[in-house]
């Protein structure tokens, strides 16, 4: 049986069972919907994609509306096996828009509930496993690409384009008309998918949301390999508690002096916090539970200094962002996450250990063979912008998996011939937010979430910008002051479009957005990667 076939067969059995129950009790309108859905059914071909199943999923008690659920396989190359899921709400519930949803990490499966939030909002929805089976299986991760260059190209860009082409064809046939707007949103790998679409396939989407993108892929993963190696050095291991020692020193020195409020539990602008790992080096007689040893400090200094070519000294990838230590801990040393992110055997022969990866010659081979397929680093968005395309980018400043400096630099490089970048792109940096969400901040974006207020929901903002020309300049973040208490008051804080940043006015309630104003972001001098590592 082909890869992923068991998953598809089980889904097909469930879909057929639901279809049988629906047919037995269907109203005329429901029967018409079922007929329209099943007309898209098994074996129908759309270009290089073949529908595996098409059946109506009844409305559920948790508010998920009735919809036509379609599973398909796309094969842009003979070895391709790209699983695509499309969900089409009933015609009267459809808002006239198509929303593509990105995946995460190495993908290899369709994320549970990936389409549910958008369906509740009335979108026709589509997502894909990115053709990277068996990446989602235990202990596989990014090693799905070992010896499989075509699978990497599918994962890198072809799968997202294939799902979009199929979804548009299905929308047109099911509703009898094309979508009025097509949007895409994703974070991490999904953010890279978004950038890749705008760069390679600018006609696919009218507007995109790009979250914490992993678009500088080969060099980001070179950093993962470097952090794993640093943490494995004798005496350099760090526990989560020891990482907190350095973070606590950073908060003590910089909170309230970086534009945030004095009582913040996160850094508003870690890009200007000048705390160094050596500031927490153990002094003679000091309690070792309150400081770090010399080997640990030296390893952290290397990490915050960035990943370098050992022969030339060139910067390959950015150093860590101060305040992101909670997530950095997952990458430090020989951790399960670090092993999952390993791409060294995309180029290393099987007999060579990952630790033998040469950050000069082996990296050159990694870039030569795979950068064109998996790196979304072309800043020229002229074709996308010329057709009225819009981009909203967001990135957490407490992100320990993908440093925000990468997104800032690429955003500043983005351009379009004859157009000011501000005409079509916005970047929002999010204090206190980790990778794609979480952390101590008050912000997170995903179509999986319920629709929020118009001034805080990026998907709403994207639609208003695309359809009405109303560009977002400020986004209001909201969260419960004490999430453990259902009746806790709501705190709010503004996010200002880059290059501005929200700064506390020094008076008023620090938990309310009205006490902040947008001012230019202060940023300490940051070393940029060598040009050959920024493409």
TrEMBL record:
Indicate the transmembrane segments per the record: none
Q: Which residues form a coiled coil?
A: none
Keyword set includes Heme: no
Q: Does the keyword Hydrolase apply?
A: yes
Q: Which GO terms fall under molecular function for this chain's record?
A: carboxylic ester hydrolase activity; metal ion binding
**Gene3D superfamilies per UniProt:** alpha/beta hydrolase (3.40.50.1820)
Listed A to Z, the keywords are: Calcium, Disulfide bond, Hydrolase, Metal-binding, Serine esterase, Signal
Give a Pfam family name: Tannase
Origin, by domain of life? Bacteria
Where does the UniProt annotation place the signal sequence? Answer: 1-31
Q: What family does this chain come from, according to its entry?
A: Belongs to the tannase family.
This chain belongs to the protein called Tannase/feruloyl esterase family alpha/beta hydrolase
Please give the organism.
Caulobacter radicis
Q: Read off the lineage from the record.
A: Bacteria, Pseudomonadati, Pseudomonadota, Alphaproteobacteria, Caulobacterales
